[in-house]
Amino acid sequence: MKIVYAVLLALCVFVTCSFDSCFPVPPTPGTPAGGFPVTTRYITVDQFGNPLGSGVEPGTQVSGNWVSGGSGGSVTSFGINPPFYTDDNGNGFVDNGIVNANWTSTVAWAPVGCPAPGSTTLPVSVDPIDGIGWLCTVVQTTEGANTSTHFALPGAMPSTITAYGDFMATYGDPGLRVYVGGATPSLVNVMSATSTVPGASAVFPFPTQSNGSPLAEGFYGLVSTNVNSAGRVVSTWAPSYLAIGGTTAVSGAYGIDAADVTYIVTTLCQQGPPRAQGTCKPTITQTVEAQPLVTEYYAGTVSYLGNTMAVGSYPVAIKSYGSALVFDYNDGTQSESHRGPANAVVVNSGSSNVTILDLKTYTTAATVSVGAEPMAVALNSAASTAYVASYGNGTLAAINLSSDSLVGTVTGITGAQSVAMDPGGSFVWVGGTNYLYKVSVSSLAVVGTYPVSGQVTSLAASNAQNELVYTLVQNCCSASSQYSANELSLATMASTGTHASASANPYAAYTMNGTLPSAATLPQATVVSAQFSNGMAASATPTGFVVYDLEGHTTLMTGTTPTPVRGIAADPNGMFAYFTVPDSNEYIAVPLESQ
Fold it and tell me: For the chain, what is the domain count?
């Protein structure tokens, strides 16, 4: 899951490409007779170098000197005396500057956003259209404290947001510029601070659209600004971010998975006159969307693509697999079809079995009995075998997905409540009570146990990072019980990170009508990203969720939900994470990057 991170490490570089390939050309380009634009922009990238968004750097001081060549204009320097600043949109113009010539240029970025004042380029060719463009590339690594809020839900947005940085109100109120993400980020609104602690923080009304209406679901960049002694607006702190989630009502939404679905629309050729035979070619368009598959705990059903499928009692986990093309509609002029997963395994905790769904026909393909109170399922990389952990009798069942039959059962796994494949593929890890169990897939026997302090309530593996990530709940669920999300190196079996440590007491009020073995049963509540070297993970917390970096071992994002999260799924494209909150009868889509 790619995410915009705050607390920034800045690296400033000069843009020598055609600048309109990076940002729109400023509104007043020059002419061959003389004069050229100067622009100052920033672009944010994640720690893997993926671009996340961009914006203007207003009020930035820039200077330049002509070196050689030229076909127009007579001005050979700018910004020395008097100083030269770009405007509030990061644009400036050097009147009558020599064009089609070699220049050197120096930029003095704002104090914190791009701390590289005095950087001078080698001579570059300056033409009247592109001019000189400076770009500050900001690498963002951890959540930090740039703003007080990084996630909010419609209808539950706070009244204010606090930004942290080197603020001053001597010459005017600090501002908060709100940008919507995407290929061409655009300014949504500018908020003015209502109070300021000089050098530390500023409080703003919670961001809205320019007309005052709430922000729509999406991902937003936040840039805070000051007014300097010359009355210019300058950036004072590197960008932060804000994700506005969306909710979908699903009664008792508990287990969840997400799959890419490709929608194919074909416009067919019309037969007969006046069309000449053989001259018409069908028009085909394809779009890809992430679609969740959600279990409905009380109803014993699964919802997917608007279809409801009956499964067993109290379904708590689901995994989709395979690929199938499904024809949805054909009226003779246009056909519609989609390609998505072919099947899904559904774990039914109340009926001690799993349901194999045929997603081509939205029907049950098979039902396989497993141990008592099954809680979690993991598939091997080939999706040929499913491993189901059963809490009630401490077993792990292996199911052949070609024949939909039970092929073996591992016993002696106390409190089996979570399961994940080992990165090497030869073992399965099962989270139990006070232990992580390592099971051989060839012998279907426990080959190792590793002590932990509490119940492993959810479990996932990062193949690229060779780690296990898991949630741990101790003594659920009194005032003395504890929760944590943890990283474990499989090379050393040592902890590499702990996140969101807190009291587990908030789980106490939520037991799903007493049908679960514990109020903190979270069989699908940790997930690792498929992209970005498996470098991101998300876990449920007693009051919401936490997203963390498995390479830097740092927290990236936290969020609060109305009731506890029970299941998490990651969009394969990394655009969204989905969180089920069954006690609120909904699931939440959380945007995790600029689209």
Answer: 3
Q: Is 13 left (phi over 0), alpha (psi -120 to 50) or beta?
A: beta
| Whether 189 and 111 share a structural domain | no
Residue 251, pLDDT > 60, answer: yes
pLDDT at 295: 98
The answer to whether 35 touches 73, Cβ cutoff 8 Å, is: yes
d(CA 148, CA 496): 26
**Tokens linked to 571:** 């969009």
* Structural domain harbouring 351: 246-591
**How far is it, in rounded angstroms, from Cα 60 to Cα 39?**
9
- Which of 86, 117, 141 is a domain's end point? 141
d(CA 266, CA 342): 22
Please write the tens of the pLDDT for every residue from 2-11.
333 222 222 2
Considering the domain architecture, whether residues 336 and 205 belong to the same structural domain is answered as no
Residues belonging to the chain? 595
pTM of the model: 0.78
Alpha helices in 312-379 (DSSP H): none
Do the Cβ atoms of 40 and 134 come closer than 8 Å?
A: yes
End of a domain among 203, 219, 244? 244
Question: 531 and 413 in one domain?
Answer: yes
Kindly state the average pLDDT of the residues 193-207: 93
Q: Same domain, yes or no, for 43 and 189?
A: no
